[in-house]
Each structure stands twice: as structure tokens, then as C-alpha cells.
Amino acid sequence: MATEKPKKIKTNPIRIECKILFVKIVEVDSKNEKFDAECIVECCWNDDKLMKALLDPDLLTKQEKGFIDTSNLEITDANLKNLLDNIDEIDYDPSKFWSPEIFIENAISVNEMIKYKMEIIEKDRNFYQKYIQSVKKQKPINLVNNLTVRVQEIRRVKGIFYERLELNDFPLDLQEISVRLSSKKSINEVLLIENRQEPSTVDINSFCDGQQYELFEHVTSKRDTKKDEFRKIVRSQFIVSAFVARKIGYYCYNALTLIFLITSISFTAFSFKPLDPQFRCQVIALLMLTLVNFRWVITQRLPSVSYLTMLDKYSIGSIIFLFISFVWHSMIGSRTFSEDLASIKRLDRYFFLGVKSFKEKNLKKIVPRNYMSS
């Protein structure tokens, strides 16, 4: 299934106001591209048919499966008392009344507890002013027609969610962890929107993976659509994202610094005479094997992605640096450039100073000062 841009809605769908509260984020697993979290998902919608059904207690006592037919019911002042009595005594049943059939798109393994609440609200807050004007015109409007039932679905979700991580800047990466809500109904029936009165939030104090990541208070939400190829419909999506930044301390001390030290040891090869390449090449070859093995250990902590992370570029660059040094020591020892010993020493000195300045310059680009202090 491919994600598509939101399309123009042809009909008048029921708008579902959504809100997600990240109660606890337990762990962010970079290697398996998933995160463990607990969140509360709230979805609210207005149901006029349910409003009519609550007016008639006989309909609510029926036990047939399926939706209750409210097409012939009318709201009057006489049966309004039934509404006030039933809304506190009757539990919402999604098998009898209309439901948006919300589910979590990126859930891998979760446990859900769902409960429903119903309340009577006004459709139009300015309806009373319109009512006063209609009375003055001797054409009063029925006040009951401005009432509707607001259904609130509250689900507590705890489990594992899938999240595709972008590791181009690893280990200086900022990750977006999201919960994706969707409906089994078409976008022409259900439209998931943001609850602007109560926006989504995240509790940063209950973050359990603080040793590796820093959780931010900022939360974003957006609407999207997804094409269901099996049912040939387009479904509405609502995505809420929190953001975590990886703490570089561990990788700075145990990866970047060690790679830098391993490659820096290659300069000790210059302590041997240029005409003794067997000693120089032995040092460089040993360092190259050490660095290749060290890189293999680091990659075990990351998923097998088809692109290079920043740490990959630095480690591969260090291996290439050792390879160039290996070639240089082989050529300078075989007197390829000159037969004169003084010229050989001078070229060797220039190469030493050149690679030293090149390595220091690139280290500053890869590890900025603000990250070194974190």
C-alpha cells in the first residue's frame, strides 16, 4: 500500500476529532526499527442518530445484532426526558450504533482497553441567538434540534509500534516516532482530524530510554490518506509524532574517538626509515584489519540500510586513509619517485604533514564542538 496525498472529499464525511497522549515511551530500538510505548488515544464524534435512539427506551432494549434504525424518529419535547435518563444508564455499543472503526496502522503487538463515554452537547453555540431572532419573527425554532450526542472513544494502548528510522546522520540523528490512526471506512464516510481544543501531548518525565535519547516536548500531527488496494477505497489517516534525539556521548567515546586513535597510530609508521617498507606496511596492515573488525562490531547495532550513515562514512574514510598510507609506504620504500635518499625523506615529510592536516580538518567537520560537549 502506497501513501498518497490527501484528495478532495466528494461527500460530507463524519469528522472524527483525534488526540493522542504519549503516556510513556519505554524504548526506541534502532536496530529493529520499532519503539515500545504506552499511549491514550481519544476519538470523538457527533451522532444525531444515536441522539434519536436515546429518546426511545424501547429501541435500546432490543438485543438484535446490527445497527438500530432511527430514520422514523423525531426529537420532541415530550421524549426529551428519556434522553436525559438514558444517556447516563446506557453504555455505548458499537455493534448497535455507528462506529468509525478506528485502528492503529503501525501497531506490531499491542494490548488495548477501550471504553466509551456519551454526553449531550450543542451543535451551534450561537443557536440561542438565532432562536431569539426566530421568536421575534414569530417563527420559533425547536431548541431540541440543536442538541446532539457526542461519543468519546478512549483506548489505552500499550505495546510495540513500527517506525521507519532515518539514519543518515547517525549518531547525530533526530528520530520521529509516530502513532498512525486509520479507519476501516472510506474517506467519504470518515475523516480523521485534529482535536484543536485538546491537542496531542507527550509526557517527557516518564521517558525510560533517557540514557540513549533525549525526548522533546514538541508534538506534531498531520492528516494523510492511504489507498487500500484490496477494498479499492482511500482511507483517512491521522499521524501524531514525538521527537527524540540520540545522545552522542556513547558513540563519541566508544566509536568516533577509537576510530580516530586507531588511524592516528598509523603516523607511527613514519618513525621507521622510508627505505624499510616492510616495517611500515606491517603496522598499517595490522591497523587496517583492526579497523575493519571494529566497524563490523558497530554495524551490528544498526539495521541493514541501503545507504551510508555518517558513522559509516567516517569509518570507511578512515579505512581508505589507511589504504592510501599503505600504498604510499610501499611506493616510497621501492624508490618509485626518486633514487635520492634526501628527496625521498623530503617527500615523505610532505606526505606526513599533508595527511595530518587533512585528518584534523575532517574530524572537526564530522564532530562539531557542541556535540563533543554533550
TrEMBL record:
Provide GO CC annotations from the record. membrane
Q: How does it sit in the membrane?
A: Multi-pass membrane protein
Q: Which UniProt keywords apply?
A: Membrane, Transmembrane, Transmembrane helix
MF terms in GO: extracellular ligand-gated monoatomic ion channel activity; transmembrane signaling receptor activity
Q: Which residues cross the membrane?
A: 248-272, 279-298, 318-337
Task: State the source organism's domain of life.
Answer: Eukaryota
Q: Where in the cell is it found?
A: Membrane
Protein name per the record: Uncharacterized protein
